[in-house]
Amino acid sequence: MDVQTHWWEHFFEGVAVRMWLQALPDEHTQREADRLARLLATSPGAKILDVPCGAGRLALALAGHGYRLTGVDWSPEFLGHARARDTAEQVTWEQRDMRDLPWPDRFDAAFCAGNSFGYLDDEGNAAFLQAVRTALKPGGRFVLDTPMVLENLLHQLQPRPWWKAGDVHLLVDNQYDPARGRLDTEYTFVSNGVVEVRRGSQRVYSYRELMALLTASGFAVELAEAWTRDAHSVSFIATKT
User: Fold this and answer.
1) Nearest CA-CA partner of 70 in 106, 40, 97
2) Coil vs helix vs strand at 111
3) Residues 6+ apart with CB under 8 A from 186
4) Which residues lie across from 196 on neighbouring strands?
5) Which residues contact 197 (CB under 8 A, 6 or more apart)?
6) What backbone torsions phi and psi does residue 130 show, to the nearest 5 degrees?
7) Does the CA dihedral 219-224-229-231 come out positive or negative?
8) Is residue 45 exposed (0-12), middle (13-18) or buried (19+ Cβ within 10 Å)?
9) The dihedral formed by the CA atoms of 79, 185, 146 and 84, expressed in degrees to the nearest 10
10) Which H helix or E strand runs over 8?
11) Dihedrals φ, ψ of 61, to 5°?
């Protein structure tokens, strides 16, 4: 599968954004935000970084509980929807590469949730984690919740699953390349008789590799729950040392 290195720069536009806006009900987002608040272990009023934030569903939910959120994303279309939803202007929205976090020691906590980690190469992923650490205050927590843990992914990977979100049908063709350690994916979006095909790729780390990557970036790491291979995603709690 031919996937461009910087595929993520133009992937989140049009039908892909429309699908994600319809993908999850508000009740799911609220449960996810409540769990994040517990794992981040901060009090209302704390400064929290959401990177990448997409259309801001989690940032807005946490802001509604009194936290001060900054959301960072590369997609101007996602950020446009985030700003439109933020009618009370509770969140600071920034269009940036996820490695570009120029706020040393500003945040009490940070998180990266969903299918948002591993887009970059090894050097880029390490640079992202180091940028998050720099942005955190000493002792600040970073929650990395990701399905891209090799042992979990290979146990559950379906070659050609499909979903429906609102008026968008999505067919996925997954191909794991062990030589590169990457999951290459072809996404076929079907909406109102229009078909669009896009491709993406994510680095998949083993549990041990991901723990080592977080530790090398300057974090002390624990898990939110005991690891099992049946988990859909793994939540790493990384504390700035």
Assistant:
1) 106
2) strand
3) 1, 172, 173, 197, 198, 199
4) 189
5) 186, 187, 188, 189
6) -70, -35
7) negative
8) exposed
9) 10
10) helix 8-11
11) -65, -40
List phi, psi (to 5°) of 161.
-80, 165
pTM over 0.90: yes
Task: Give mean pLDDT, residues 69-78.
Answer: 98
Q: What is the pLDDT of residue 190?
A: 97
CB atoms closer than 10 angstroms to residue 188:
15
| Residue 50 confidence (pLDDT) above 90 | yes
In the block, residue with structure tokens 């067919």? 171
C-alpha count within 13 angstroms, C-beta hemisphere, residue 236: 24
Would you state the structure tokens that stand for residue 39, as one six-digit string?
A: 């794992």
What CA–CA distance (Å, rounded) separates 223 from 145? 10
Three-state SS for 199?
Answer: strand
Report the pLDDT value the prediction gives residue 1, as an integer from 0 to 100: 80
pLDDT digits (tens, 9 = 90+) for 84-125: 999 999 999 999 999 999 999 999 999 999 999 999 999 999
Pairing verdict, β 194-203 and 68-73: unpaired
Q: What tokens does 183 get?
A: 């999951």
pLDDT of residue 4 exceeding 90: no
* Separation CA 148–CA 209 (nearest Å): 11
